[in-house]
């Protein structure tokens, strides 16, 4: 299947979701592992499949802004502004939860994460699922990344199948994910905009829409997906290395079998080193990041050295993922 939805495939996947099954599907960020967000038993299967802690909240994916009142008790003007600016797209809004939203979706918190993904296959699935069936009107699909908890997120259907084998009810193939890292998460549940997880959409872009600065998460901020210190990690130990120190680190580890991901060509004379050249620009780097880490992880090296990207705002999302994946 390509990025163009096949009606028969979409309807089959929607029927599986309605029946309480698990469906992996593409979004513009990464592949999600979806279940009917209003079905606690189905959502519990997500946690079991991933090995995910029960208090770790999920993001509910919607097909239309009109569904927001079904999930959020309070929809501030800021949410409407950001939805108009960035949805469908890689932005999750955390709002006060509506009555009846299952605790299993929110991690027991008083807030819920919501977004409309910007991928044609995802949108077709969500619209098919939201249609009435068997006398019931369906609404949202809870979907964390379709990988084992804490590991590298999937950006192709092949990644999902390699991760879960035959354990899932269905995998919708929508090609490679365009963005390649998870959505930006903005908390609006406490009266101001707070960044809970960086992504492709930067705090500066959010601030430009709202006309107000985006705050940093504090101790009272809601828990957010992907915010643990260790996340997105390969099984091979990964170390972030400043560009100026990369050659010295390679020399110090010359007895080891190493893999390197760097935004530069490989120097001559390297031994026992698999060097992968990464894109220089942030968008193609993010698009390729998880696939690159999976490829390097499969080599059986002693360590993966990643040249640290620039510490500038537009690289914040990538740097966040690499820092959480790092063994340092």
Question: Can you walk me through this structure?
Answer:
This protein is an alpha/beta fold and 328 residues long. It has 2 domains: 210 residues, Alpha-Beta Complex (DHBP synthase), CATH 3.90.870; 88 residues, 3-Layer(aba) Sandwich (Rossmann fold). It has 11 helices and 16 strands. The chain has a 10-stranded mixed β-sheet with strand order 9-1-2-8-3-5-4-10-11-12, sandwiched between helices. Strands 13-16-14-15 form a 4-stranded parallel β-sheet, with helices on both faces. It has a two-stranded antiparallel sheet with strand order 6-7. Strand 6 and strand 7 form a beta hairpin. 45% of the residues are buried. The model has no long low-confidence stretch (mean pLDDT 93).
Describe this protein with a few key phrases.
11 helices; 2 domains; 328 residues; Rossmann fold; 10-stranded mixed sheet; single chain; DHBP synthase
């Amino acid at each position: 299947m390509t990025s163009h939805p096949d009606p028969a495939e979409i309807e089959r996947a929607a029927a599986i979701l309605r029946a309480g099954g698990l469906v992996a599907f593409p979004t513009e960020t990464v592949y999600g592992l979806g279940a009917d967000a209003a079905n606690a038993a189905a959502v519990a299967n997500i946690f079991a499949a991933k090995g995910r802690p029960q208090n770790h909240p999920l993001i509910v994916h919607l097909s239309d802004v009109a569904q927001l009142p079904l999930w959020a008790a309070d929809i501030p003007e800021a949410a409407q502004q950001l939805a108009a600016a960035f949805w469908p797209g890689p932005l999750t809004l955390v709002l006060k939860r509506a009555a009846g939203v299952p605790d299993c979706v929110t991690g027991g918190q008083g807030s819920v994460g919501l977004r409309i993904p910007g991928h044609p296959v995802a949108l077709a699935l969500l619209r098919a699922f939201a249609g009435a069936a068997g006398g019931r009107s369906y609404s949202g699909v809870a979907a964390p990344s379709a990988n084992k908890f804490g590991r590298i997120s999937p950006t192709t259907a092949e990644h999902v199948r390699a991760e879960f084998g035959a354990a899932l009810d269905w995998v919708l193939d929508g090609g490679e994910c365009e963005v390649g890292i998870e959505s930006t998460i903005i908390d609006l549940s406490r009266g101001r905009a707070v960044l809970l997880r960086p992504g492709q959409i930067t705090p500066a872009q959010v601030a430009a829409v709202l006309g107000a600065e985006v705050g940093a998460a504090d101790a009272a901020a809601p828990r957010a997906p992907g915010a643990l210190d260790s996340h997105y990690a390969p099984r091979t130990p990964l170390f972030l290395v400043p560009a100026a120190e990369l050659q010295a680190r390679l020399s110090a580890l010359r007895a080891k079998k190493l893999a390197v991901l760097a935004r530069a060509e490989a120097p001559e004379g390297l031994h026992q080193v698999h060097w992968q050249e990464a894109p220089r620009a942030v968008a193609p780097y993010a698009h390729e990041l998880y696939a690159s880490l999976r490829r390097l992880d499969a080599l059986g090296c002693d360590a993966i050295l990643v040249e640290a990207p620039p510490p500038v705002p537009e690289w914040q999302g990538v740097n966040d993922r690499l820092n959480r994946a790092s063994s340092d």
